[in-house]
Amino acid sequence: MQQGLAIVFAAVDKRLITLLTAAISVALAGLVIIQWRWISGTIALKDQQFNENVDNALVAVSDRLERIEAMQGFREHEFGRDMLERMDSAARAADEEPMEPSPEPGEGHGDGHGDGLEWTRVYDERDSLITDVVRGLFSPSFYGSISERVDPQLLDSLIDDELGRRGIDERHEYGIFGESGEPVLLSITDDADSALVAGSTHGIRLFRNDLVGEEYWLRIHLPDQHRHVLRSMWPLLAASALFVLLIIAAFVFTLRTIWQQKRLGDIKNDLVNNLTHELKTPISTIALACEAMNDSSISKSPEQLRTFTNMIRDENKRLGLLVESVLQSAVVDSGRMRLRLTDLDLHAVLGDVVRNSAIGAQNKGGRVELVPAAELAHVHGDRIHLANIFYNLIDNAIKYCETAPLVQLSTRSDTKGITISVRDNGIGIPRSEQKKIFDRLYRVPTGDRHNVKGFGLGLSYVKAVVERHGGRIRVESEPGTGSTFHITIPFEHGQRDQTAAL
């Protein structure tokens, strides 16, 4: 009943965690999509603003060119020069003293005869200027060729100035093209680049106020436009990317922690169930044996008494091993593994382990052997804990073998330490499971087979002891071919009588 309720609650928890994971994933995906759309819209807006600035700069360049040409034409006319000189003189006089109103024609001093002739000459020259300008506006010969009207150096400086006023200092290429698209003036000589300039969307007609004559277009190409837009936005982009990555990392870490806790909880539940079952079996067997021995109705021959005694001894040993496994796990989990380091002959320790473990292998028709090939075998270590790790490995090799177990312990040494290899002919470990076997409470899945008892505590204890001795452990295994555990213990490590803090 309790096991059924545990299964129901586990299914509910798993479904709830799955729904929570899906909800957070959808929310995170929506946040990333919204952020991406917002950034894309901002980039498009910045790009449009950049295009408008370039177009406005071209309009300003065209207007300034036209004003400069008009001023030059005005200076070339005799009356125009005279008028400009008078305007300059009047401006200088205005800076020195207030100007008096100019007399109207016929209002001069004296008889007015000389003043009238002067004003008549002025009006005649003004009419001549206006007539020449009006006639020139409708005469193609008045404007001259585009190469004469545009100074390349002046055009280059005007473009740089107008772009700089709008904060655009990017590399640019420009050219002047006729109505049919043929280049008239180019800032580059490469034909490929000139084609890019001719096809640019940034263009303005020059001398837009010309009433007659051919149309000419000034076009400009900025190859680094997109880079300029991104560079202007890089602080915003970097901050957005950083925050999104932090959210994703926190999300992944949270989900990973939740699933790990869920998995750990399931494993602990399995441990409790297995431990209850494992403890119940030997206790029941011992109780039955004791009742049989105390039952006066059952004849007790020496052979039967020996059988009951052996049964109680074996089950008691089994209880001791179960308790030892739990105690070892508690020591590791508490973070206080006390190591009493002494000078050890590791070959002697391994000899005792092999001799005591040989009986278990012989009962299944196998054997355990030691090949001491290391030239140096003395280390600083805790004898009890080091012996326990090899007992664990040999016990696993015997349990996880479907034939007669053959376990071989071999040693080799170098200048840094000694390596002990424990090789067996068991069922092997899949490559996908080899990184997990040293986790606490983890057992390699065996499908529907439950003939091997255990709690997944042994290898985690082995790894903890090896690491506290400054060593390392690794495994080589393939399903069906057995496993080999390599344990390396350095000659010099740690302090004597130390307490581990795991």
Salient structural properties:
502 residues; alpha+beta; Heat Shock Protein 90; 5-stranded mixed beta sheet; 4-stranded antiparallel beta sheet; 13 strands
Q: In words, what does this structure look like?
A:
The chain is α+β, with helices and mostly antiparallel strands and 502 residues long. It has three domains: 19-95 and 119-223, no CATH class; 227-314; 337-500, Histidine kinase-like ATPase, C-terminal domain (Heat Shock Protein 90), CATH 3.30.565. It contains twelve helices and 13 strands. Helix 11 (383-399) packs antiparallel against helix 12 (458-468). The protein is elongated, with a radius of gyration of 49 Å.
Fold topology:
Blueprint lengths: L1 H75 L1 H19 L16 H25 L2 H4 L2 H4 L2 H14 L7 E5 L5 E4 L4 H8 L4 E4 L9 E6 L3 H70 L7 H33 L2 E3 L2 E4 H17 L4 E6 L5 E4 L1 H17 L6 E8 L3 E7 L34 H11 L3 E7 L3 E9 L7 E3 L2
Parallel strand pairs: 7-9
Antiparallel strand pairs: 1-2, 1-4, 3-4, 5-13, 6-8, 9-10, 10-12, 11-12
Short description:
Helix content is about 60%, strand content about 15%. α1 packs antiparallel against α8 and α9 packs across α12.
Element order, helices and strands? HHHHHHEEHEEHHEEHEEHEEHEEE
Number of helices: 12
- Quantity of strands, as a count: 13
The helix fraction, in percent, is: 55-70%
Q: What proportion of the residues form beta strands (DSSP E)?
A: 5-15%
Q: Whole-number radius of gyration? A: 49 Å
Q: Shape from CA axes?
A: elongated
Q: Which structural class fits the helix and strand makeup? A: alpha+beta
Terminal Cα separation, in Å?
Answer: 38 Å
Strand count, sense and barrel status of the largest sheet are:
5 strands, mixed
Provide the residue-averaged pLDDT. 75
In order across it, which strands form the biggest sheet?
7-9-10-12-11
The assembly state of the depicted protein chains is: single chain
Low confidence ranges: 1-9, 137-142, 447-452, 494-502
Number of structurally distinct domains: 3
